[in-house]
Write a structure and sequence with these properties.
Blueprint lengths: L5 E4 L14 H6 L1 E4 L6 H8 L4 E4 L8 H4 L7 E4 L9 H6 L4 E3 L5 H17 L2 H9 L17 E5 L3 H12 L3 E5 L5 H6 L3 E2 L2 H7 L2 E4 L13 H5 L6 E4 L8 H10 L4 E4 L19 E3 L8 H20 L11
Parallel strand pairs: 1-2, 1-3, 3-4, 4-5, 6-7, 6-9, 7-8, 9-10, 10-11, 11-12
Helix pairs in contact: 5-7
Length: about 325
């Protein structure tokens, strides 16, 4: 039986972990196990029970107290990125298990680009026209396509990503309005937007794009009431967090035609189940949580993971430790 510690890397959906960094030192000193398929239930438990160290890809797999309690060998957790809402840091701290994280590459730019890819795909009905051409239907929609110039975009959350989204909107000649729980007129003006009440943003915006951090004040922010207030031609975009919206309410609202279209990159369950009702709706554009998925981002992720694991295996101080809770 090997005396090497076991390191389990989860959720390498992109199949790039092995090639994104130099793992040779880690492999020489540990039993490295990289899982590319999502693991849940018993399969997840079986994969993690031997683990001395676990590497998480952001919050794709929750690591909560009931699961942590079943992992007798666990001595280190590393997650990619700088924030993980699906990690029970208190349960890990209670056992004295350190938690480390990585830095970021240009994820803000990547998410901004995907946001606009979704907006344009929804606005110009790209997926419907592409599918029509492939089945021999030259014009599958009886519609005249709208333009963005002169329209209002409501940016919900004007941080680093929301600010970038707003800047591109101005380049398209759009009017930019914004709201967030702590928005001020001065903050909005500094990024070329105008602060308005949430109700006004919902009722008047053609594009509504959300870029909020999820917390007690924002979880479930978009529900049946908010969707019903939107314009029938509104395009609702979420590349932030699935928990910001009531997904069932969005499905019902899309069936009623308010908003007119949704463009989504994040979902309450990922990977999205094959029978999910969103997949049956014609007025949605969906991507499989690609906002932060970019080569330079993942190279930074895994380089920092290897850096942390190398230090841990050598008994050296760990970089980028999560502060104690």
């Amino acid at each position: 039986m090997s005396s090497k510690p076991t390191i389990v890397v989860l959720d390498d959906f992109e199949r790039v972990a092995a090639d994104s960094a130099d793992w040779s030192t880690v492999r020489s000193r540990a039993d490295l196990r990289i899982h590319q398929a999502p693991l849940r239930g018993d399969a997840l438990l079986q994969a993690l029970v031997p683990a001395d160290a676990i590497v998480l890809m952001r919050d794709r797999t929750p690591l909560l107290a009931p699961l942590i309690a079943q992992l007798p060998n666990l001595k280190l957790v590393v997650f990619t990125g700088t924030r993980n809402g699906a990690l029970d840091a208190k349960a890990l701290a209670a056992r004295g298990i350190p938690v480390a994280h990585t830095g970021w590459g240009p994820n803000k730019d990547a998410t901004t680009e995907l946001t606009w890819a979704l907006i344009l795909a929804a606005q110009k009905r790209i997926t419907t026209h592409d599918a029509g051409l492939r089945r021999g239907d030259w014009r599958p929609l009886r519609t005249m396509l709208p333009v963005l110039h002169g329209q209002r975009i409501g940016v919900v959350g004007l941080g680093e990503i929301g600010g970038r989204v707003a800047g591109i909107a101005r380049a398209f000649g759009m009017e930019v309005v914004t709201w967030s729980p702590n928005m001020t007129a001065e903050r909005a003006e500094a990024k070329g937007a105008r602060s308005v009440p949430f109700d006004e943003l919902l009722a008047t915006s053609h594009i509504i794009s959300t870029h909020l951090v999820m917390g007690p004040a924002t979880r479930g922010l978009f529900g049946a009431t908010q969707f019903a207030a939107m314009r029938p031609d509104a395009v609702f975009v979420n590349t932030s967090r699935a928990g910001l919206i009531d997904e069932a309410a969005l499905v019902a609202a899309l069936a009623k035609g308010r908003p007119g279209v949704a463009a989504l990159d994040v979902f309450s369950e990922e990977p999205l189940p094959t029978q999910h009702p969103l997949l049956a709706l014609p007025n949605v554009v969906l991507t499989p949580h690609l906002g932060f998925v970019a080569e330079p981002v993942f190279r930074r992720f895994y380089a920092d993971v290897v850096d942390t694991l190398t230090a841990w295996l050598a008994g050296a101080p760990l970089p980028r430790l999560l502060p104690p809770t």
